[in-house]
Amino acid sequence: MLLSSPGGDCIDDMRHLRKDDGLEAMLGYRLPAPETARHWLDGFHDESLTKESPLHGSFIPRESEGLEGLKEVRRRTIWAYVEAVHPGWDVTFDVDAQLIGMNKACARYCYEGYKAFQPIEVSWAEMGLVAMDEFRDGNVPAAKDIKMVVDEAYEMLLPGLWRVKIRSNSAAYQ
Q1: Distance of alpha carbon 27 from alpha carbon 148, whole angstroms
Q2: pLDDT, tens digit, for every residue of 8-64?
């Protein structure tokens, strides 16, 4: 997130962020070198999960064991936040997919005609927390499995009597 927020296009752009003394002071640590970050990110990829990908049409592979582990870290973070802040029982989930233009060979063409990835995110609007996200190829419609995505976000909440509202664009019309 720190890389893409200021407009970073690739992992090598981390070199610029590593030189930012103010960012280092805010974070309390120096960002890793691009090679270190690339190695860490590669650990989340499991090539065997993409073998079922069809030649045509959209496909969302199962998450790797590493990504499932990160999901548990997110859950525990949200639970600790709720226990510390006591935000009340009202939750608004904002659901949105975003096209990110890409020149990578593996990127698929999106509905607008260019190569892209299209991650989807469910954020807890009142708290500014990301409850769920899923990385997707550019040719995966935003509406695909959107109910499952929202249900997964709900599972991130501490057990309780939540009053949940969903905000989305037309992708959630179904």
Answers
A1: 34
A2: 778 898 998 899 899 899 989 998 999 999 998 888 888 888 787 777 778 788 888
In terms of DSSP bridges, do strands 129-134 and 120-124 run parallel, antiparallel, or are they unpaired?
Answer: antiparallel
Secondary structure class of 59 (helix, strand, coil): coil
Judging by DSSP bridges, how do beta strands 100-101 and 115-117 pair with one another? antiparallel
Residue entry with tokens 């593996």: 106
Q: Where are the alpha helices (DSSP H) in the chain?
A: 14-18, 21-27, 34-42, 65-85, 146-155
Cβ pair 153, 93 in contact under 8 A:
yes
Whether 93 contacts 125, CB under 8 Å: yes
**156: number of Cβ within 10 Å:** 21
Residues 37 and 32: their CA atoms lie apart, in Å, by 6
How far apart CA 126 and CA 119 sit, in angstroms, is 21
Closest residue by Cα to residue 150 from 119, 127, 123: 123
- Report which of 131, 138, 143 is spatially closest to residue 171, judged by C-alpha positions: 143
